[in-house]
């Protein structure tokens, strides 16, 4: 009896694990680039699902991309750019979000 219940439980867990795996089709990304010669200047570029550049901005600040709050800000800006569906002409969007000077 214990073997039957244990086998049934293992099969149920395996089935539930395979159903829960769904692939998200959102492949829009952002990239932060810096230069060794000018470490205080960074360029942030946002790409859509087809890897086309939708927005780029160069700022005079160091952005720590390993910081979770910075990642959340960049992701929310990417979501904003993706929902508008058109390129943003305002060149200070990123600088205003991080409260730094634009280059």
Summed up, the helix count is 3
Q: Percentage of helical residues?
A: 25-40%
Coarse structural class: alpha+beta
Shape: elongated
Largest sheet: 3 strands, antiparallel
Helix/strand order, N-terminal first: HEEEHH
- Quote the beta fraction: 15-25%
Mean pLDDT: 80
Uncertain segments are none
Work out the radius of gyration. Answer: 21 Å
Please, how many domains? 1
Q: Determine the N-to-C terminus distance.
A: 72 Å
Structural summary, described in words:
The chain is α+β, with helices and mostly antiparallel strands and 103 residues long. The chain has one domain. Strands 1-2-3 form a three-stranded antiparallel β-sheet. The longest helix has 18 residues. The termini are far apart. The model has no long low-confidence stretch (mean pLDDT 80).
Which key features would you list for this structure?
103 residues; alpha+beta; three-stranded antiparallel β-sheet; 3 strands; 40% helix; elongated
Task: Give the SSE layout.
Elements: H1 2-19, E1 29-34, E2 42-47, E3 53-59, H2 68-84, H3 93-98
Antiparallel strand pairs: 1-2, 2-3
Q: Quick summary of this structure?
A:
This protein is of the alpha+beta class and 103 residues long. Helices cover 40% and strands 18% of the residues.
């Amino acid at each position: 009896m214990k073997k039957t219940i244990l086998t049934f439980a293992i099969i149920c867990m395996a089935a539930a694990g395979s159903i829960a795996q769904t692939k998200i089709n959102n492949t829009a990304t952002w990239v932060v680039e810096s230069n060794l010669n000018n470490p205080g200047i960074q360029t942030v570029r946002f790409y859509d699902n087809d890897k086309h550049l939708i927005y780029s901005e160069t700022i005079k600040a160091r952005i720590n991309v390993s910081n979770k709050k910075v990642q959340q800000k960049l992701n929310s800006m990417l979501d904003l750019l993706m929902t508008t569906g058109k390129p943003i002409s305002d060149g200070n969007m990123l600088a205003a979000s991080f409260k730094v000077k634009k280059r």
